[in-house]
Amino acid sequence: MKFLKLPIACLLFINMFVAVAQDYKVHSHNDYKQNIPFWRAFGAEVQSIEVDVFYKNGKLMVAHEQGEIEENKTLERLYLNPLQEALDLNLSANRSLQLLIDVKTDAYKTLEAIVASLKKYPSIINNKHVKIVISGNRPALKEYVDYPSYIYFDYQSLQPVTDTEVLDKIALVSVSFKNYSEWNGKGRLTSQDYNKVTEVIAQAHQLKKPFRFWATPDSKSAWKAFVNMGVDFINTDMPNACVAYVSSLKDRVVQNSVFSEVYHPSFKSDKAQRSPENIILMIGDGNGLTQISSAVLANNGSLSLTQLKSIGLIKTQSADDFTTDSAGAGTAIATGEKTNNRAIGTNIDGEPIPNLTEILSKKGFSTGVITTDEIIGATPSSFFAHRTDRGMAAEIASDLQTSQLKLFISQPTAAVKNNEEAGFVMKTDINTIAASTELKVGAWFNTDKKDLSGYIQNLAMATKNGISYLNKEKPFFLMVEGAKIDSYGHANDIEGVVTESISFDRAVAEAIKFADADQNTLVVITADHETGGLTIPQGNVGLHEIEADFTTNDHTGVMVPVFAYGPMSQEFQGVYENNEIFAKLLSVLDITTKK
């Protein structure tokens, strides 16, 4: 009984994770009002279907009110015949199904007719996976035992039942939600109503029977609340939507377990009216505002990224599509020219365009690219390659060999060969890069996720060492990409999105720390596009919990944020096109180019 002494917040936390994994069921309330009764709910794989029945002129008629009765809509035609067919065809795959018959006329006469009708369907009444439950007008409690073994009852009370034979005839406990709360399913239950409702559920479960509320709000917020609180049958008039929602909660609700230690900048050099010497451009692939929000809320409400004050928004459309891909967006940022989707460093006519690493290398900059993708991936290759299609792996790899890059770190890729011939000294330990004196270095990330804490530190470690390597006698330009935020967005995997966003923020912290120490480095953090159409309808900051809802497995056309820190960071405020980042970077460096 010590459990009962836990604070409400703790009980909610425990209920949340037990309930999401519990054997909850969906109840299709007033199913006969669906445009395709029975089959719509059955196809949605609900576990309970409700039908209202009137006994009139010797027939069991299906309707909500007397005045709605139609001659051909009988219990047998709408429910018993389809159920028998589903069982005969083995369409139920032995899953449990409860048919709850809500009796609207005299309990005894109607129930007598129901029993007589059911006797025509031995495949239903003898099936161990099907349960017939009588609700609405019912005989006296003590009389439940007088009915056939295949008839069960809906007990609409919280009072104890001491007769074990009677208790065995009770299939579930149901009460009206309206008796305890007027909540409409929007926002949250008040704490007072929450306590009332949870107390009702606890009392019902003392009978050791499944529990259902009727007269409930019918929304995602309500469904999740009832699942979290341990309601066994979720009442709904939208069976398909409800099943899809509650069955996916286990995949869309994540409790974060890895964190980014928030770095608080000094702001000594921020917005200084002087040209920076170095540029660190950081791209969170697919990292839209909601992805950032999910990481913020899962990371105790703050990130190193969200400490920054110079903030803008960029529009991401490509030259030939409303919704960009990473190649079109990466090329726009790297070259200052919007191009077609799939193009890498080429314009709409397929001609090469100079990119930032090429332009800055000619101006005496050391340049590098770090990515958690393969180096031939669409975003990183936009900063050194010139190909008409991102799928030209061998050709992009050959462009790396002739590039002006002094540094690259990426996932291993079989397409990249002969790095040593191109002058890159390959390092097996990223930590050795900082002290390296070689003219060109490269390294592969260890992609093993078994050590999660080590994995999420990879990008930060690479960023720190890459900065140290490039920061020698020359100014430098470094592009750092957190690529896997996009991958998990495509997969609609919120846990992966949050983890990769935390990893990216750790790298952001390293860049800002360096900018504070150096006082002459501009850090710009943005995204190429948003991925997944992510929303976060619910969560709990204190529990590091996020519930995600994705609208697509692809990119979207929404604007994405730009954060900047260091000298001239204010130039990146406002709303503008993604290709303007290129011009802004060259402008703050006081570099002019002729295209």
From TrEMBL:
SUPFAM superfamilies: Alkaline phosphatase-like, PLC-like phosphodiesterases. It holds the Pfam family GDPD_2. Mg(2+) binds at D285, T379, E481. InterPro entries: AIM6_PI-PLC-like_dom, Alkaline_phosphatase, Alkaline_phosphatase_core_sf, PLC-like_Pdiesterase_TIM-brl. The keyword DNA damage does not apply. Keywords: Magnesium, Metal-binding, Phosphoprotein, Signal, Zinc. GO terms for biological process: lipid metabolic process. One of its GO terms (molecular function) is alkaline phosphatase activity. Gene3D superfamilies: Alkaline Phosphatase, subunit A, Phosphatidylinositol (PI) phosphodiesterase. The active site is at S326 (phosphoserine intermediate). Binds 2 Zn(2+) ions. Binds 1 Mg(2+) ion. It comes from the Bacteria. Residues 1-21 form the signal peptide. Its cofactor is Zn(2+); Mg(2+). Zn(2+) binds at D285, D486, H490, D528, H529. Belongs to the alkaline phosphatase family. This is Alkaline phosphatase. It comes from Maribacter litoralis.
